Amino acid sequence: MTSRLKLVGLVAVPALLAAAVPSAYAAAQPHTTRAAIAGDVLKGLNHDAARTGAVSAAKHISVAISLTPRNNKGLDTFIANVTSPRSSSYGHYLTKAQFAARFGRTDAEVKRVKDYLRAQGLTVGKVHSGNLLVDASGTAAQLEKAFGTKLATWKDAKSGRAFYANATAPTLPTGIAGLVSDVTGLNNRAQLHHQATDTVAPRNGPGGGYTPAQLKGGYNVSGTYTGSGQKIALLEFDGFAQSNITKYDTNYSLGSPTPTVSKVDGGSGALGDGQVEVELDIEVLHAIAPKANVTVFEGPNSDAGEVDTYQAIVDSGIPTTSISWGASESQRTTSNINAVDAVFKAGAAEGLGFYAASGDDGSDDAGNGTTTVDYPASDPYVTGVGGTKLTVTSANAFSKEVAWSGGGGGKSSVFKIPSWQTAVQKSAGGGYRQVPDVSAHANPSPGVSIYSQGTWTSVGGTSAAAPEWAAFGALYNQQAAASGKANLGFANPALYTTSGTGFHDITSGSNGAYSAATGWDFTTGWGSYNAATLATKLLG
Question: Could you report the per-residue pLDDT of 315-351, keeping only the tens digit for each?
């Protein structure tokens, strides 16, 4: 299962930086030159929603301000080298301090932004590692003054849900606009939710799904490596009940460490219908990498919460992250995608790997009869994970695998094809990023046996496939550490140099518009992993 997410942000129009800016910034002065911040008026706002009024001037709203990296092209070049096995720089990742010194904004530049925000009456919160993200909050009236726009209330024509959004493109004084790449939080139209695919089928596990032994056997996970000493992060917008995790671990005698919870911006609130999503993610990680330490980052159900939660994971330095929440590229603004992409870029430079579910709606991720892909699986600094249907023998060994019909895949409409993917470029891709990169078991019948909300059940979807791959990342890192080698980090450049060695190549099945074929394809990417042989190949 994968979760649906629509989020938006802002992008600054390039502007000349002021040579000197007073600490009490002059945005309040009527004659200050301002630059429009394009890209953050919601798409189709006047066509699929009706304006109902103005936002209360006293309403408190939180925002996250993203800053442009220094030498952005240099950052791209550094990441290309540090993640390529063919480069002498491979694996020589930056520390957080090194990243900030090399690509972050200077303390003086950050101070200019903070001074401007405070001059508008906003409260400045955390400045995150890297000096590229600043949290702030204030009333709707203060935000309207700071960003030169008006916030209005709207009613969605399809769902009837009320929300607020900026009615016009925001502006900033030119001396600040040149530093800012995005501001999230000026609308709350986004609603995070997930698509649960629960079934019961006759398999060995309680609830009818695959057991840890079947998953590890099917993917040739050696008993030597358990994830011991490794850390994995989960990005979540809901919580979990530890009693359910304990029941799962005890049933399979896993002896897994108790997950740690890190609440971002106050956390995700009371348990909701995303609980099964979170418990699925944790239990799949425990099934394949039972001794890894899992940290669950729980953020609020908002667009600013998404950016802050990703940034909190990068701040933590945890090397492997599983992501089961997403939305079609067409349901996001380009500016919001740019804001999240900037966090992933920082993570890649610092040796962090992200594995994201590619969606459960096949080639039509938006559900509108077109071919669309899910974000963040389509991000060029993320490993997009598609879905398969795995069959194992009675001895829990790999038998066969076909593409799952719901597995997301296709071409991005935002990102050009990365250099590491050009060797498998397809004409159907049209020169754009191709999704997914890899895949794993996601079919819901049988799915994965989990214990959630007080009962055993079988759950499927690419939300199961993403943690299956994140678990492999942790197992690889354990093996690499034992060999004196660097963590896998952002995996795609290395995975594509294997030319399919160490993968189960899936050649049958379809996800709608695309069919599986020999080698890389739009349904399953390279395929699922043979853990032992793929790790050996990647270790060289």
Answer: 999 999 999 999 899 888 777 888 899 999 999 999 9
Exposure string of 473-504, with b = 16+ CB inside 10 Å and e = fewer, is bbbbbbbbeeeebbbbbbbbbbbbeeebebbb
* 210, β-bridge pairs: 448
| Per-residue buried b or exposed e for 181-195, using 16+ beta carbons within 10 Å of the residue's own CB | bbbbbbbbbbbbbbe
**Coil, strand or helix: which one is 2?**
coil
Q: What angle do CA 282, 492, 97 make, to 5 degrees?
A: 80
Element containing residue 462 per DSSP (H, E): helix 462-482
Taking phi first (over 0 means left), then psi (-120 to 50 degrees means alpha), and beta for anything else, what does residue 433 get? beta
Q: What is the DSSP letter of 42?
A: P
| CA 65/CA 304 separation, integer angstroms | 9
What are the backbone dihedrals phi and psi of residue 458, each rounded to the nearest 5 degrees, phi first? -115, 125
Average the pLDDT over 451-456 and give the result: 92
Token code pair at residue 110: 């950050």
The whole-number pLDDT of residue 21 equals 35
**Rounded to the nearest 5°, which phi and psi values hold at 412?**
-70, 150
pLDDT at 14: 31
Give the DSSP letter of residue 27. Answer: G
Find, among 516, 489, 495, 514, the residue nearest to 505 by Cα. Answer: 516
Q: How high does pLDDT run on average in the chain? A: 90
pLDDT in tens, 246-268: 999 999 999 999 999 999 999 99
CA 366 to chain centre: 17
| Model confidence band, residue 2 (pLDDT cutoffs 50, 70, 90) | very low
Token readout for 53 is: 């009024």
For residue 376, say if its preceding peptide bond is cis, omega within 30 degrees of 0.
Answer: yes
Pairwise CA distance, residues 534 & 18, whole Å = 52
